[in-house]
C-alpha cells in the first residue's frame, strides 16, 4: 500500500502467468494429521486479508483440521488460473473476473463474497469533491485502461454518456490527482484514499456501489468439480468456516489485524499507520445488515441478478446464475451466523 499498478486484472485474470512453487490443493495430510491446502489471495500481503491472518494466527484453521498455506497474489499471479490448475483449493477473485475465466472454460464457481460493496470509487480532493455521478460531467477522470469498462458501465447506469466525461489514462497513481491533472481518479476505497490520508491530504471518495455499480468483489472462488468431490467439498466448508470466524474477530479488533499483518510479513514493506487506517476503512465495505443477520461472506439472489445485468454492460457473455453456489454458505451457517 499504496499499489500503483492496476489491480483489476489481479481480481480475475484467468489468462495471466501463474505463480510457481505453490503447494498443491490436494487431499494429502501433513505429519500433524491436518489436510494441507493452499488458499490463493488476490493481492500481495496486507491487512486487506487481516481476517484470514487472524484465522491462521489463532489456530482456527488448525482446529478445523487444516494446514493452510496462504499464497500472495501480485501483478504476475492469476488467482483463478491457480485454482483451475489445482495449485490452490480456493482463491479470492471478483465476479466479473470469474465470469471471464469461465468464458474461457475455467469451470469456476463463486461460493461467497468478502465485500458487501465493491471497493471501486472515484477519489477527488476534499476541496473540490465529486459527490454524485452528475458531478463528473465536464470533468477529467484518471482511469487505468483495464478499469475503463467499469467506469463506462457506471456512467451508463447513471444515464451519463461517455463523451460527457474526459477519461485520462492513469497508471493507478494518485500523483495525477494531487498535481491537478485530473479532477478525480478511479481507484479502490481501501487503497489510494488511505494512502492520501496518511500523507495528510484530505480526499473525498464516492463509492460507485452507492450509485448502482456494485460488481461482487473479493469472492471466494473454487472449482465446481471440487464441490462435487466429497473430500474437497468438506475441505472447502472448513476453510470458509475458519476464514469467516477470523473475519468476525477482525471486526471486533481491526487494529490487532493491522499489527498482525505488519509483524507476520516484515518483507512486504507495510507501514503500520497505513495498515491501521486501511483496517478501519474496509469495515465499511465488508460488513452489512446482511452479514450481521446471515453471516460473513453472505450474498443474495438480488445481488446475483444485479451482477448478471452488470455483466451485459461490461460485455461479458454467457454467464448465468449457475456461476454462484450458495450451498457452502448454507452449510457453514446452518446453526446461525456465528457458527
Describe this entry's structure for a reader.
- With 339 residues, this protein is α/β, with parallel strands linked by helices.
- Helix content is 37%, strand content 16%.
- The chain contains 15 helices and ten strands.
- Strands 2-1-3-10-4 form a five-stranded mixed beta sheet, with helices on both faces. Strands 7-6-8-5-9 form a five-stranded mixed beta sheet.
- Helix 1 packs across helix 9, helix 1 packs across helix 10 and helix 9 packs across helix 10.
- The two termini are 33 Å apart.
- The N terminus is likely disordered.
Model regions low in confidence, pLDDT < 50 over at least 5 residues: 1-24
Largest sheet strand order? 2-1-3-10-4
* Radius of gyration (Å): 19 Å
Number of helices: 15
In percent, how helical is the residue content? 25-40%
Instruction: Write down the overall mean pLDDT.
Output: 91
Instruction: Describe the largest sheet.
Output: 5 strands, mixed
Distance between the termini: 33 Å
Helical/strand content category: alpha/beta
| Beta content | 15-25%
Following the backbone from N to C, one meets helices and strands in this order, namely EHHEHEHEEEHEHEHEEHHHHHHHH
- Please tally the β strands and state the result: 10
Q: What overall form do the CA principal axes indicate? A: globular
Helix/strand layout:
Layout: E1 35-40, H1 50-57, H2 60-63, E2 66-71, H3 79-85, E3 90-94, H4 95-103, E4 108-113, E5 120-125, E6 140-143, H5 148-157, E7 166-169, H6 175-178, E8 184-188, H7 192-198, E9 203-207, E10 217-223, H8 224-227, H9 230-252, H10 254-264, H11 272-281, H12 283-286, H13 289-294, H14 301-314, H15 327-332
Parallel strand pairs: 1-2, 1-3, 6-7, 6-8
Antiparallel strand pairs: 3-10, 4-10, 5-8, 5-9
Helix pairs in contact: 1-9, 1-10, 9-10, 10-11
